[in-house]
Structures are given as structure tokens and as C-alpha cells.
């Protein structure tokens, strides 16, 4: 791979083509060299000048421009990643059956790098047996075909078929560029529950006890599991305005007790439970029914009571074959370092794997990157190098898959 990763961005002829501009902007601004290959139909939605201005590269649709450069072969050969946003039903069909009638479909045949197809179409088209078979065929060959999101479609229609959020698409593209292998669909058939975000325990109608968790790591775990084929339920406490992960069932919870109830319900028949949420250890014994004011004379002291230990409860009631993964946000102190505390927690909780983060200013919480350690109940320990939270998520799922495959 060159210093500037070379990305080919194919654009299909659907109404979601305008969102490819946001994907393009995010990729170029983060240092990627992007060549846009729209279909002729895509140019009915977004003009070539827009793609050229955002990419700094010429835009063509046919194989007869710059013939001496053999673009229909060279572009695919040079690429580090080929992605199609949106991938229409027509483009999925052509890619599955090797049809090549323009520059984009020729490039799909010559690419030997990871290929990512991000579908967008009406629900009926996505669910048609022809599209279902085409997607299965592409995936069997190693092409990454994501699940479309659910939501508002063209006109008044609503359903599955909406393009994934551009930020999520770019995050997946970066993840694919960082891996030596394509993202496998090795979690198909697994029912997965992931918790994320920080719980909030109300003091009064305005204030609460909480923590600095953004929910980004838990969302990355849920999103990555879905991309690898799992049936995912995400139980989300407070997060920082994150887009809903595509292909994930989302359940909202506010307090530790609400999250506990939601996780227990969702995990009753789950194969894997990953407790990435930052659950408050304590909550106020009572909530004031009015805002506690500075002018109040001698306000009542805040009495705290302990919240339930959700991870320990999950381990105690686990069913046969269920894998349970905990997270530990730790700091060292005068008595022990981060790993010493984490090892003690793993032994105390009894989960199969424990993901350990050293927290502090600029670490783990409210940042885009993460690092830590992965501890196993069998005694295995290994570091997780600093990288995006999606990269950490892939390492965690790699470890879970290896554990369950033994």
C-alpha cells in the first residue's frame, strides 16, 4: 500500500448517490487518494464536476477515454480498496455475474484488493430472490456486502434499504484498509448482545450521577459484529449522538437498573454477550422531586446505594455454550497497577474474556482511538495496540471467534 491509500469509489445510479459526496469528502480529508467511477445513471443524480472537485481526479464512465492508459484494467490493479456507494440492485447483479459494460464494472473484475458494496434500494428490491442470491454469491467470493439500514426511503416509503450513514461507511473502509485480510463473515448464525454508553442515575429532575463514556467502543463492537454476519442487539445507555449502527437492533436504557433489565431480556437466548457499557457502580438512594437549589438551606446529604453487578449476574445465570465478555476501565493506584486490578476483576467476575482499558486524560473515554489488553479466563493475556475503536472491536471479535471455535 502507498503512503496515500488508493481508493476507488464507485457510485451507482440511485437517489442515495448524493451521500457518496460525503463519503468522498471524508476519505480525501483523511489523506486517501480517491478515484470516483460513477455509472452513467449516477450522473443523473450528481454531476461529474462535483466528484472531480471533491476528489481532484478526472471522472469518466466509459472504457474508451485515455485508452493508452488502459484504465479499465489499471484502475482496479492499482487500488487498495474498491467500494461502491450506493450499490444498486443492478450493480449487485452485474458484479455477481461478471458483466462489464462500463468503467466501474470492468474495474470490479480487475480488482484484487478488498471490494466493499454498500447497498441502497427499495425494500422490495433488496428482498427479491434475485438480489438475495446475488448478495450470497458475492459474499461467497469474498466481496463485503453490508446490510442496508432501515428508515425513510424515496417518497413516502419506509423500510429496509436505506444507505448506511456515511461516517459508518468510511469507518468500515478504513478498517478494511488496516487489515491484511478481508473482513470475514465468521459470525453468521450467532445471536449477539452488546451494551454501550454510560448510565445516568438521577439526583433530581436536572442532575444525575454519570461517567464520561461516549458509547463509541460499544457501538463499534455492535457494528463490527453485524458486518461479520451476527444477529446483533445493542442495548445503549447515554451516548454522544452516535448514528444507529446499520443492521443492528437498538434498545435504549437510561439507568443501570433499566440497562440491567434490557440486557437480561436480550441475552436470554444469546450466544455472546459483550458488556461494554460503563455502568454506574452507585446511585442515589432517592431522587428529589424538584431541582435542588443553591439557596436551599442545609440540603439533605446524598446517600448512595450500590447498583446491581450486571456482569456477575450474567455469568451466574449463563446458559450452556454462552460466551460472556466484560470490559474494565482501570487506573493504577498505590496498591496495584492497571493489569493487577484487571486480573483480580476477571477472577472475581468469572467471565470468559475481559477487555481492559487504562483510563485517564485522553485515554479510552471521549476519544477516537483505543488500546488496552485482552485477558482470558484460561490465563492468556495480550496487548491491543493503539488504533481506531473499530480496530479494537475486530480484535475482540477475532478473540471471541477463536475461543468459540476451540
Descriptive notes:
The model has no long low-confidence stretch (mean pLDDT 92). The chain has two domains: 6-178, Rossmann fold (3-Layer(aba) Sandwich), CATH 3.40.50.1950; 191-404, Rossmann fold. It starts with 5 loop residues before the first strand and ends with a helix. The chain has helices at residues 19-29, 48-55, 71-78, 89-97, 103-110, 123-127, 129-140, 166-178, 216-227, 256-267, 310-316, 338-349, 389-404; strands at residues 6-11, 33-38, 81-87, 115-119, 144-145, 149-152, 158-162, 191-196, 201-202, 208-209, 231-236, 248-252, 272-275, 282-284, 304-306, 323-330, 353-358, 369-376, 381-388. β6 (149-152) and β7 (158-162) form a beta hairpin. It has 406 residues and is an alpha/beta fold. The strands form five sheets. Strands 12-11-8-13-16-17-18-19 form an eight-stranded mixed beta sheet, sandwiched between helices. It has a five-stranded parallel beta sheet with strand order 2-1-3-4-5, with helices on both faces. It has a two-stranded antiparallel sheet with strand order 6-7. α1 packs across α8, α3 packs across α5 (103-110) and α9 (216-227) packs across α13 (389-404). It contains 13 helices and 19 strands. Residues 6-171 form the Flavoprotein domain. InterPro entries: CoaB-like_sf, CoaBC, DNA/pantothenate-metab_flavo_C, Flavin_trans-like, Flavoprotein. CTP binds at residues 281, 291, 308-311, 327, 345, 349. In the N-terminal section; belongs to the HFCD (homo-oligomeric flavin containing Cys decarboxylase) superfamily. In the C-terminal section; belongs to the PPC synthetase family. One of its GO terms (biological process) is pantothenate catabolic process.
